[in-house]
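Example for tutorial group B:
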C-alpha cells in the first residue's frame, strides 16, 4: 500500500510536520506564474532619502556622512517597542504584563527595487555588517533580553512598504518560538552532551540530499522537518551561539550564502514573497539579574548549547483549518526534492 503522506518530527522543538507525498507537487508547480510584484512609486516612497537622524549610515566603502549611501538604520516611525521602564512585571489576577520597553529600528538599502537576490556580494556584506553593528549596540541596553531581526519581502509576507528593508526589534522578554528552540537544544545537550544543530548539520552535509548551497563557513539546508515548501535554514558550520560574534571573514561568507540562497529562490520560483529571520541566543546578560525587585530574577545563562541560524520561509501556501487547528503544517514537496531543484538554479 502506497503511503499518501509522511509525518516528520523536528528533533529540536518536537513539533510534527506533514510531507504530503500523496498530493505532492513538482518544483515547477510552485512557480509564481500570476504573482504581481509589490511595487510602489519612488515619488511617494519614504525610504528614498538619507535620513538626517539616521543611527548609522554606510556607503559602498564603509561609514559615511555624505549623501552617497547604500544602507542606513533609522528609528521606526511607528515603533512596537521604545524607551521606557523595563523589567517591571505587573500581576493582576491570573495575568502578567510588562511595559513594551526596548527599541525598533529599520535597516534600509538605497535601491528602490533591488532586493537581496539582486545585490552584489559587497552590497549584501554591508547590510549584514549593519545587522551585526546594531546588535552590538542594542545588546547593552538594560531593558533588552532578546533582539529580533527579520525581513518581509512582498505583501503576502507582511511588507507594507515595497522598498527593501529589514527590521530589528529589541524586546524585554524571550519570544516563545525562540524559547522553544532554546529549550529543545538544551534538552538534547543535557541528554547527548552534543549540540543538536551540529548533529543535524553534520548528517546533512554527509548525506547531501538537503544541501542547497555550501561555502567555507556556512551551509544552506532545506530542513528534514520543513514547515513550508522550499524552507531554507543557514547554519554556521562551526558551533556558535551568537550571530553578533561572527568574525569579519564569517560575516562576508554569510552575506554571500544568504544572497545566493535568496537568489536561487528568486530565480527558481519567480520572485516569491518570503520572510527571513534570525534565531540567536538571548543577549549576554540577563535583564532580570541586573534589575532589582524583579520576580523573574535569574542567574545569567550562557546558552552555549545553542547554535544560531537564519530561517527563510517562502510564502508557497496559506494556512487552512487543519494547520490552524492542530499547529501541524503541511508541505506538498519533500525537502529533498526542493533542495535538488534549488541546487540546479544558476545565479
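The residue assignment follows.
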Amino acid at each position: 500500500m502506497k503511503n499518501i503522506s509522511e509525518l516528520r518530527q523536528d528533533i529540536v522543538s518536537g513539533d510534527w510536520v506533514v510531507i504530503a507525498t500523496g498530493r505532492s507537487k513538482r518544483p515547477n508547480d510552485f512557480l509564481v506564474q500570476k504573482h504581481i510584484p509589490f511595487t510602489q512609486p519612488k515619488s511617494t516612497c519614504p525610504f528614498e532619502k538619507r535620513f538626517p537622524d539616521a543611527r548609522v549610515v554606510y556607503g559602498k566603502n564603509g561609514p559615511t556622512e555624505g549623501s552617497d549611501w547604500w544602507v542606513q538604520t533609522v528609528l521606526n516611525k511607528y515603533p512596537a517597542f521604545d524607551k521606557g521602564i523595563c523589567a517591571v512585571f505587573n500581576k493582576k489576577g491570573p495575568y502578567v504584563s510588562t511595559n513594551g520597553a526596548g527599541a525598533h529600528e529599520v535597516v534600509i538599502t538605497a535601491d528602490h527595487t533591488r532586493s537581496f537576490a539582486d545585490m552584489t556580494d559587497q552590497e549584501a556584506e554591508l547590510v549584514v555588517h549593519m545587522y551585526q553593528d546594531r546588535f552590538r549596540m542594542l545588546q547593552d541596553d538594560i531593558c533588552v533580553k532578546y533582539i529580533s531581526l527579520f525581513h518581509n519581502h512582498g505583501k503576502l509576507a507582511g511588507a507594507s512598504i515595497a522598498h527593501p528593508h529589514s527590521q530589528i526589534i529589541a524586546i524585554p522578554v524571550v519570544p516563545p518560538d525562540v524559547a522553544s528552540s532554546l529549550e529543545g537544544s538544551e534538552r538534547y545537550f543535557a541528554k547527548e552532551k552534543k549540540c543538536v544543530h551540529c548533529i543535524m548539520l553534520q548528517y546533512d552535509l554527509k548525506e547531501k540530499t538537503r544541501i542547497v548551497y555550501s561555502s567555507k563557513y556556512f551551509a544552506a539546508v532545506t530542513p528534514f522537518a520543513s514547515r513550508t515548501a522550499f524552507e531554507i535554514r543557514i547554519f554556521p558550520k562551526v558551533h556558535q551561539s551568537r550571530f553578533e560574534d561572527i568574525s569579519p571573514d564569517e560575516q562576508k561568507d554569510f552575506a554571500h550564502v544568504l544572497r545566493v540562497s535568496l537568489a536561487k529562490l528568486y530565480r527558481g520560483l519567480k520572485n516569491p514573497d518570503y520572510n527571513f529571520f534570525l534565531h540567536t541566543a538571548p543577549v549576554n546578560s540577563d535583564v532580570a539579574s541586573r534589575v532589582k525587585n524583579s520576580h523573574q530574577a535569574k542567574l545569567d545563562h550562557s546558552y552555549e548549547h545553542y547554535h544560531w541560524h537564519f530561517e527563510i520561509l517562502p510564502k508557497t501556501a496559506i494556512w487552512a483549518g487543519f494547520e490552524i487547528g492542530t499547529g501541524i503544517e503541511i508541505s506538498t514537496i519533500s525537502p529533498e526534492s526542493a533542495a535538488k531543484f534549488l541546487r540546479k538554479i544558476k545565479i
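The first helix runs from residue 121 to 138. Compare this with the pattern of hydrophobic and polar residues in the output above.
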